[in-house]
């Protein structure tokens, strides 16, 4: 199950499901009953876009761009904050990364301060059911170019310093 809203355009609002062949027809009927027309022209254009290989080319370009942006952000973290603030999982998937914070850090307050200064990050602790969950900041990097990233990172670093974080930058 997925959507083209994330990979192409948010307002597209076209999703898909990959199902075993025996379920395809019953699900096609269910979808026809639940969702009444309106997107046929857009669906045909999207199908043609995929058939001609343009979608795969777009995905390849975006993967490269996102990989470059993630690497740039990781270099900023390592250079100005130190390796303790690098994401625990160094994988290439996704459009976000997590800066881990010490157990006693108030990631909610840090995120609120960053937002006041114009930088939106999400506190990791809000994704846990229990208050003893990990502390950190979830940073999105997909829609931020290097210049914007550098500026926002400077602001975030100032917020972390104000919260008493100690950095061990790598020069």
Automatic annotation (TrEMBL):
Lineage: superkingdom: Bacteria
SUPFAM superfamilies according to UniProt: PLP-dependent transferases
Entries under InterPro entries matching the protein: Aminotransferase_I/II_large, HTH_trans_reg/aminotransferase, PyrdxlP-dep_Trfase, PyrdxlP-dep_Trfase_major
GO MF annotations, alphabetized: pyridoxal phosphate binding
Start and end residues of each Aminotransferase class I/classII large domain: 1-134
Pfam families: Aminotran_1_2
PANTHER family (UniProt xref): HTH-TYPE TRANSCRIPTIONAL REGULATORY PROTEIN GABR (PTHR46577:SF1)
Name under which the protein is recorded: HTH-type transcriptional regulatory protein gabR
């Amino acid at each position: 199950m997925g959507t083209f809203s994330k990979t192409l355009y948010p307002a597209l609002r076209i999703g898909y499901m990959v199902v075993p062949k025996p379920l395809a027809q019953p699900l096609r009927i269910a979808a026809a009953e639940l969702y009444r027309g309106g997107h046929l022209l857009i669906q045909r254009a999207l199908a043609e876009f995929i058939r001609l290989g343009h979608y795969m080319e777009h995905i390849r370009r975006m993967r490269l761009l996102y990989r470059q942006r993630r690497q740039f952000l990781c270099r900023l973290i390592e250079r100005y904050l130190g390796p303790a603030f690098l994401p625990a999982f160094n994988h290439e998937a996704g459009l976000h990364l997590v800066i881990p914070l010490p157990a006693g850090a108030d990631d909610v307050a840090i995120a609120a301060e960053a937002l006041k200064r114009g930088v939106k990050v999400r506190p990791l602790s809000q994704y846990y059911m229990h208050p003893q969950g990990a502390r950190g900041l979830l940073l999105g990097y997909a829609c931020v170019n290097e210049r914007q990233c550098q500026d926002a990172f400077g602001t975030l670093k100032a917020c972390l310093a104000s919260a008493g974080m100690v950095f061990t930058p790598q020069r």
